[in-house]
Amino acid sequence: MSYPTPHIDAKPTDFAETVLMPGDPKRSAFIAKEFLTDAVLVNDVRGVQGYTGFYKGKRVSCMASGMGMPSMGIYSYELFNFFDVKNIIRVGSAGAFQPEMNLGDLVFAMAASTDSNYLKSFGLPGDCAPTASEKLLFDAVDNAKAKGLRYFAGNIVSSDIFYNPDPTVNSRWAEMGVLAVDMEAAALYANAAKAGKNALTILTVSDQLVRGEHMSSEERQNSFADMITLALDIA
Is 72:66 a contact under the CB 8 Å cutoff? Predict the structure, then answer.
């Protein structure tokens, strides 16, 4: 299979070696407009916008992943395998499981457990919690320390289910030390591992699920700016 794919109408040279991936196409456009210079739209198939521009003189791309592991699975697979992308940094939101975590805290996903069947497609003889790439993770931690940002690093869970009818699910993950929940990281990490590429998921706590606290839209935008700047700095 070669480019263009059914989902990305571009050439490999249209993408930088590092791509930031928010879930929301509008956030991809926001990153391009507010953080990149000379940004060019390189993909708009199905409204999943991808841009390439410059940040502090470094060529970098951003493109939405869509929502959930099937969507992340498609876009990260194609970028890694057909468009010569070497690094994908997911920037998204998370619901926190641990009581000491606050709204706006950053989460660096060292590993991503999952309730999805996505990893079963790899035919492994057991359960796998794919991990972040070491260098990207260490760079993110060092950058957060230098900026004085509050962060947590550890295991998260990527779930296929947003509205879970089982009210005990969150506490059971929390008892295993899982920090937070997202819906994409496990697919990204598995695809990176299989392709021999690099990936990191950086999340902002937008919902404190223990205390029932939730960010306003204005708080989301301001907090997400810290996360995006950090991701671009390590790109």
Answer: yes
85-110 pLDDT, tens per residue?
999 999 999 999 999 999 999 999 99
**Residue 166 annotated in active site:** no
65: its two tokens: 């992943």
Whether the pTM exceeds 0.90: the reply is yes
Helix (H) or strand (E) holding 36: none
Report domain extents, the chain.
12-234
List, in sequence order, every residue forming a beta bridge with 112; answer none if it has no partner: 156
Q: What is the CA radius of gyration of the chain?
A: 17
User: Which residue has tokens 């939730």?
Assistant: 214
| Length of the chain measured in residues | 235
Catalytic residue among 115, 139, 207, 226: 207
Is CATH 3.40.50.1580 correct for 12-234? Answer: yes
Task: Count CB-CB contacts under 10 A for residue 54.
Answer: 13
